[in-house]
Amino acid sequence: MRLIVFDFDGTLMDGRLIDVLAQRFGFEEKLMKVFESTVPGHVQSLKVARLLRGIKLQDVLKAARNLRFMPGAREVLNGLKVKGYITGIISDSYKRAIESAVEGLPIDFVMANELAVEDGTLTGEIRMPLGWAKDEDCLRHSVCKLTALREAARRYGASMDETIAVGNGEVDICMVEAAGLGIAFNPNSSKLKRVADVVIESRDLRPILNYA
């Protein structure tokens, strides 16, 4: 069974979900201050989630449905399904919002942070469902994409050699390096470029079909 996983922000999506939400709900300045901090990735994610406190879940899902996808995203996903791939998203964004954004697209699973909701309103907390796969030099992002890739491969009966991972940033390094084929898409990390098997510099996903 062949399996391909994508990062969401900056890979399948043209931009970042949290930036769209910050603009929509008016916390852009507070978000910028969080991103300027030097705390570990999982702590930063907790701080970002607090900015969502009091927002209705349905309003977040509605905003997510209006996200702009990277050129070629739909064509690539449809082409991969024709080739028999299991397709998934592994992201340090929010599972419910991503699922809303990709509704109707051929995505088999989403692995991401889970928003805490009470009476239809976000509490400002998240659940990080995936522990870290290693200790040494681990950046402690809120979603360990290496753990997620291994879990997805186990779930769908694929060997790691049968996996493809596509990402654009530092958070994607571990899964891109561990996958059978690692693709750095329009990368913003020099280290990601070094560990990837393939580097695609254009903002168009369609070249991926040449390698799948």
Task: Describe the 3D structure.
This protein has 212 residues and is of the alpha/beta class. 36% of the residues lie in helices and 20% in strands. The chain has nine helices and seven strands. It has helices at 17-25, 28-36, 41-50, 57-64, 73-82, 95-101, 145-156, 173-178, 190-195; strands at 3-6, 86-94, 109-118, 121-127, 163-167, 181-185, 198-200. Strand 6 (181-185), helix 9 (190-195) and strand 7 form a beta-alpha-beta unit. Helix 4 packs across helix 6. The longest helix has 12 residues, at 145-156. It starts with a strand and ends in a 12-residue tail after the last strand. The model has no long low-confidence stretch (mean pLDDT 90).
Note the topology.
Layout: E1 3-6, H1 17-25, H2 28-36, H3 41-50, H4 57-64, H5 73-82, E2 86-94, H6 95-101, E3 109-118, E4 121-127, H7 145-156, E5 163-167, H8 173-178, E6 181-185, H9 190-195, E7 198-200
Parallel strand pairs: 1-2, 1-5, 2-3, 5-6, 6-7
Antiparallel strand pairs: 3-4
Short description:
This protein has 212 residues and is an alpha/beta fold. 36% of the residues lie in helices and 20% in strands. It has a 7-stranded mixed beta sheet, sandwiched between helices.
Number of helices: 9
Whole-number total of structural domains: 1
Structural class: alpha/beta
Overall mean pLDDT = 90
User: Percent range for helical residues?
Assistant: 25-40%
The third-level CATH topology is: Rossmann fold
CATH C-level name: Alpha Beta
Largest sheet: 7 strands, mixed
What's the CATH architecture? Answer: 3-Layer(aba) Sandwich
Cα Rg: 16 Å
